[in-house]
Amino acid sequence: MKAHYFKYLLQFKKPSGTSRGVLTDKESWFVVLEQNGKKGIGECGILRGLSVDDRPDYEAKLAWACANTHLGLNLLWEALIEFPSIQFGLEMAFQSLQSETPFELFPSEFTAGRKSMLINGLVWMGTEAFMKDQIDDKLAAGFSCVKLKIGAINFDRELQLLRYIRAEFPPEQIEIRVDANGAFDADTALNKLIQLSEFELHSIEQPIQKNNTDRMADLCKITPIPIALDEELIGVFESDEKEALLLKIKPQYIILKPSFIGGFRGTAEWISLAEKHQIGWWITSALESNIGLNAIAQWTFLQDNSMAQGLGTGALYTNNFDCPLTVSRGQLYYDTDKQWEFNLEDFENQSV
After folding, report:
1. Residue from 26, 138, 149, 192 carrying the catalytic annotation
2. pTM value?
3. Torsion sign over Cα 227, 230, 236, 239
4. What is the full DSSP assignment across 101-112?
5. Active-site residue, 26 included
6. Neighbours of 182 (CB within 10 A)
7. Which of 138, 192, 242, 257 is catalytic?
8. pLDDT digits (tens, 9 = 90+) for 1-22
9. Which of 251, 242, 255, 311 is CA-nearest to residue 281?
10. pLDDT digits over 49-93, tens only?
C-alpha cells in the first residue's frame, strides 16, 4: 500500500464569526491511499487554535502515519491517540479504499437517496443585521431547527434576535439552539442562562470555557436550559476519563465532532457512554470539506438518531466541489442524480 498526504486551504465565501474571531479560510490535510490500482481518500479536519492536535509536530506525525500504513488501521489508531483528526482521516481513507466507490463509504437508505436526515441551520456571529439576515434565510429555507452562534455582539442584542424568532415561531414550529463557544463568564453565566430561558431554547452549547468542570457541573444541576458539552470533550482520550467527565458534569447533551474526538471509533465510544448514563447526543461536522462531511453524514445516518444533526456546512466555501449531498427544507439528502465532481490530480494541484 502506498500513502501520501497534502494540505489544502478551504476559502470561506463570507468571513464567518465565532467567539474566537472571524474565519476567512480553513486548513485541511488529505491522506491518499493506493493499493492494487484503487485509491482511497480521507480528510484530517484540523481547526487551528481549537483542535487538541494543533501541535508543531502535526505534519511530522501525518508523514509517519503515511509511512507506516503497513501496521494497519487498528495499530495506527492506537498510536495516534493524541491526533484525533489524523485518526479520523485514516479511518476515512481506509474505508474509502475498501469501498466499491471512493465516496460511498457506508451504503444505506441514505446513500441510495431514499431517506434523509434532519439538520440544523447555522447562523454565524456578526453584526445584528447580518445575523438577522441569516435567520431570515434559514427560516425561509424551511429549517425547523436553527442554531445561533452567540457571544460576539452585545448580549441584549442577541436576546433581541431570539425574541425576533419567537415572535413569529413558537417552539413547536422552530427549535432554537445556541452555541456560546465558552464565551460566558463563569460567574455571570447562570444569570445569562436565566435570561435565555425566556425563549424556550432546545439547548446551549458550552456556555463557559472548558476545564471549569466544577462550575460546569454546578450549572448543569440548576440550569433552566439544557446544556450541551462540546469543547469540553476535546483532549479526553481514554474511556475511563470520558466516563469520569460525564459522571462529574452530568450534562444534558454532548455534541460529537469526529475530527476532534478520535474519528468514528472515538465518537462511538462517547455515544455508548452517553447512552449508558442517559445523556442525549448529536453529531456535527467541524468545517470539513465535502469529503469529510460526506463521510460523517453517511456514518451518522447509521447511528439512527432522530435529532437534528449539525451537518450542513458544505456550502460555506468557494473552492469546495460538487457532490451528491443536498440540503432542502432543513433536511440533508444524498441526491443520486448528482455526481461527484472531483479529480484527485486536479485537487492535489491546488494544494498548498
Report:
1. 149
2. 0.95
3. positive
4. STT--S-STTTT
5. no
6. 21
7. 257
8. 999 999 999 999 877 765 556 7
9. 255
10. 889 999 999 999 999 999 999 999 999 999 999 999 999 999 999
Cβ neighbours for 172, distance < 8 A, ≥ 6 positions apart: none
Cα 87 to Cα 261: distance, rounded to the nearest angstrom: 9
What residue ranges in 218-351 does DSSP mark as E strands? 227-229, 253-256, 280-283, 325-328, 331-334
Compute the chain's Rg from CA coordinates: 20
Query: Exposed, middle or buried, 48 (CB in 10 Å: 0-12/13-18/19+)?
Result: exposed
* pLDDT tens per residue across span 280-332: 999 999 999 999 999 999 999 999 999 999 997 668 899 888 899 999 999 99
pLDDT in tens, 95-138: 999 999 999 999 999 999 999 999 999 988 788 888 899 899 99
122 conformational bin, left if phi > 0, alpha if psi -120 to 50, beta if neither? beta
φ, ψ of residue 288 to 5 degrees: the values are -70, 165
Q: How many whole angstroms separate alpha carbon 58 and alpha carbon 49? A: 13
Residue 248 bears catalytic tag: no
Pairwise CA distance, residues 346 & 271, whole Å: 38
Distance of alpha carbon 272 from its chain centroid, rounded?
18
Count the neighbouring beta carbons within 10 Å of the beta carbon of residue 220: 18
Query: How far from 308 is each of 117, 175, 199, 305, 345, CA to CA, in Å?
Result: 7, 9, 19, 8, 36
